[in-house]
């Protein structure tokens, strides 16, 4: 009985599309991150985007690398980069992984 129930749950998740939902990670190159206030602004901008699960930043010499986990059914990597660019930090998508 447990095997049957487990199989039904897995099949229903696959049919509904949730098991295939697009959990993605994007790496963004962010420019002009040159002061103590900049990184928190970038992180807050990303974190407030719909579908973003986590955002982390590593700063180095006026630039930063942002790693963002997000649901691609709710937001695109291009929209993430555009939001940070619109906040005043020119951004490009570096790498996308599943």
TrEMBL record:
<feature type="domain" description="HMA">
    <location>
        <begin position="24"/>
        <end position="92"/>
    </location>
</feature>
<dbReference type="InterPro" id="IPR006121">
    <property type="entry name" value="HMA_dom"/>
</dbReference>
<dbReference type="Pfam" id="PF00403">
    <property type="entry name" value="HMA"/>
</dbReference>
<protein>
    <submittedName>
        <fullName>Mercuric transporter substrate-binding protein MerP</fullName>
    </submittedName>
</protein>
<dbReference type="InterPro" id="IPR036163">
    <property type="entry name" value="HMA_dom_sf"/>
</dbReference>
<dbReference type="GO" id="GO:0046872">
    <property type="term" value="F:metal ion binding"/>
</dbReference>
<keyword id="KW-0732">Signal</keyword>
<feature type="signal peptide">
    <location>
        <begin position="1"/>
        <end position="21"/>
    </location>
</feature>
């Amino acid at each position: 009985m447990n095997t049957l129930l487990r199989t039904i749950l897995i099949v229903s998740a696959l049919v509904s599309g949730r098991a295939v939902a697009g959990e993605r990670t994007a790496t963004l190159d962010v420019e002009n991150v040159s002061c103590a206030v900049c990184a928190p602004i970038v992180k807050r901008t990303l974190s407030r985007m719909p579908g973003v699960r986590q955002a982390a930043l590593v700063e180095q010499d006026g630039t930063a690398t942002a790693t963002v986990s997000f649901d691609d059914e709710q937001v695109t990597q291009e929209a993430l980069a555009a939001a940070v660019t619109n906040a005043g930090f020119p951004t490009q998508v570096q790498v996308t992984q599943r």
